[in-house]
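Our preliminary data section would be incomplete without showing what the modeling component actually yields. Below, a chain of 147 amino acids is followed by its predicted structure, encoded as tokens that our downstream tools consume directly.
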Amino acid sequence: MRKYTLKPAALYIMSGALFILAALVTLLAVQYLVSVKILMYSVIALFCVTAVLLGLILLPMYFRRTVIYISPYEITVHSGLIFLRRDHMKMSAVQYVTRVSLPLSGFSGFNFVILRALGGSIVLPFLNSVDADEIVETVHLEISKRQ
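Predicted structure:
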């Protein structure tokens, strides 16, 4: 059984993007809502609190708690924030596998592997490029053994 974790670079990029978005909204609020001070401060507070909550608490908690286990018999994904969730799929049920990679995915960690079976699918998010290749090869090997 092999254990995979999420790439931290994806967390850093998403958190940075959240803080940049909060800064842009703050600048726009200061620029256009000067005449309505209470609304301006409310919008600034709302976006800053949301960015801090998501970027410093919820996203790191999600990245810490998400673990992927792959064995020759099954694939299991443990994830969640408040309630932990486990997704299981038997390797024998997997019909095909898809790898989705965004530009600069080797650096950013935006590699996703989608496993599809007759009754559903499982998404393996934010993987290393090497880990994503390894998972795709492992699943392709198991599928080709059955045929």
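The two ends are 23 Å apart (CA to CA). Strands lie at 2-5, 67-70, 74-79, 85-90, 94-101, 111-117, 121-127. Preliminary results of this kind motivate Aim 1 of the renewal.
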